Amino acid sequence: MKTFRVATILALILVMASLSACQTLTGRSAGRYLDDKTITAQVKSKLTAEKATNLTRIGVSTVNGVVMLTGVADSFDDKAKAEALAMQVDGVKHIQNQVQVKGTPAASPR
């Protein structure tokens, strides 16, 4: 029984060590991928907790610490508020704010 326990622990250590060197299809390590998921969750939590405005229609994604905000806001102030809230999260390196303001024409594609 003790040999099985030692073998299990060694197998777990081996798996954890190999995961630290693995990369996802996007080239991110497993740790970076988890960090990005954590940042996304924290930004979404801040947007949802904001009671003064309706920021729940804003989508959030994160790649390598760069947060992309998409969706629709009711005003330019709400758009700026979403960006400010996202910047408060640890690990955010940059914000790409692509939120459209309700009632304004969408940006033309280039």
Task: Please tell me about this protein's structure.
With 110 residues, this protein is of the alpha/beta class. It has a domain at 33-103: Histidine-containing Protein, Chain: A. It has helices spanning 2-21, 30-49, 76-87; strands at residues 58-63, 66-73, 94-97, 100-101. Strands 1, 2, 3 and 4 form a 4-stranded mixed sheet that branches. The longest helix is centred in the N-terminal third of the chain and has 20 residues, at 2-21.
Number of helices: 3
Tell how many strands the DSSP assignment holds.
4
| Beta-strand content bin | 15-25%
Share of helical residues: 40-55%
CATH T-level fold name of the domain at 33-103? Histidine-containing Protein, Chain: A
> What average pLDDT do the residues reach?
84
Distance between the termini: 65 Å
Radius of gyration: 20 Å
- Oligomeric status of the shown chains? single chain
CATH domain class name of the domain at 33-103: Alpha Beta
- Spatial shape: elongated
Could you name the ranges where pLDDT drops below 50 across 5 or more consecutive residues? none
Reported CATH architecture of the domain at 33-103 = 2-Layer Sandwich
Largest β-sheet summary = 4 strands, mixed
The helix/strand order is: HHEEHEE
Helix- and strand-based class? alpha/beta
